[in-house]
Amino acid sequence: MPSAGNSRLLDEARRRDDLAPLTEYVRAFATDGVIHLNGNSLGPPRSGLAAELDRVVTGQWAPRQVQAWFKDGWLDLPRTVGDKLGTLLGAGPGQVVVAGETTSTTLFNALTAACRLRPDRPVLLIEAESFPTDLYIADSVAKLLDRELVVESRDGFDTYLRDNGSRVAAALAAPVDFRTGERREIRPTTALCHAVGAISVWDLSHATGVLPVDLDANAVDLAVGCGYKYLGGGPGAPAFTYVPIRLQPTVDFPLSGWHGHAKPFAMVQTFIPADDIDQARTGTPPLLSLVALNHALAPLVEVGIHELHRRSSELGEFFLECLADRSPELLGRLASPLDADRRGGHLALRVPQADKVEEALADSGVLVDARPPDLIRFAFAPLYVTHEQVANAVDALCRAVEGVQ
Ligand SMILES: *Cc1c(COP(=O)(O)O)cnc(C)c1O
User: Fold this and answer.
1) Are 376 and 370 in contact, with CB atoms under 8 Å apart?
2) What is the rounded distance in angstroms from the CA atom of residue 125 to the CA atom of residue 180?
3) What fold, for 75-302?
4) 377 is catalytic
5) Could you confirm whether 131 is annotated as catalytic?
6) What is the reported pLDDT for 2?
7) What kind of architecture, by CATH, is found in domain 7-47+304-404?
8) Sequence spans of domains, the chain
9) Among candidates 396, 404, 383, which has minimal Cα distance to 29?
């Protein structure tokens, strides 16, 4: 465990931890003494996960086997978990489902459905700074549906909508840039889409569990997101889909698997989609992964998204404060907005040999996330990071950067 070089900062960190009501949650995570600043990738499990999985395996699967799907609520879990998630997303019940797919598959399903809602429009619009899988999937959807993929820069995105909006079938954006943490406000971009008649699709992967997205209030059309980042659902946790009630009668998903059928167990030959959020389901969900995600959600739902966001911002601000004190030079390498209101849950520094610095930090018990060639991301997951850890991480960072130069 590294120790902060500056005892004044360390004292200040401990003082703030003592005052912060969420500090007690740290004990609820199996962090093993490591400082996890990579919660925008894969953070630690919540304690008690193994016992929860054992409860389901030994207490449900073993005695009831196939009957457990019906008798233990397994079949409903994609919706049950979806509704819990909805409270973090500002989505009312019956609009979020965890179908059991990856974010990539879920996005394919949502983007194709979005384009199908606007059959006469030639363009699928996406931000150039998108997470790579989003660019790849959007390209494939455009090819499949014979549309034109338009890739615009962050600023060019809204300009394109203003100038060519009547050509746009669907526009995909993210509320948090996966590299820099910079925010894009959901409301104005969604309103712009609606003003030109386009469907707005959001990839919430880097926002879910750390930033309020207010999907209902912002009148979002379709959204997807990842289960294994701030949600802490575990390695390969399934992704979610949001379909507002108002679109459920008209949306038409391409992945028409039997679990999305109005009557999955009638075993009929033609596909009739469920008339509710279940139509976004595909096949048999990965039950144990859903159990793990459900377990992870409990403290997040208990604390609530606004408090989670406040806590994460506070930790990010303290990181910058420590950096200003320890190394103004490193602070000058900030690749993210300085203003906390313009950032999601993480920030990034431009540091040469980022991968070596990442390794050196891991050796001193601080997990971060390097993105080649020169970006290091630091994520402030609200429930398992403390001010004291942040102060220690900044100290380890300064030493690691000196060490590799
Ligand atoms: C992490 C992430 C994904 C992950 O996709 P998977 O198919 O679940 O691996 C997709 N999109 C974005 C924006 C992400 O941040």
Assistant:
1) yes
2) 21
3) Aspartate Aminotransferase; domain 2 (3.40.640)
4) yes
5) yes
6) 46
7) Alpha-Beta Complex (3.90)
8) 7-47+304-404, 75-302
9) 383
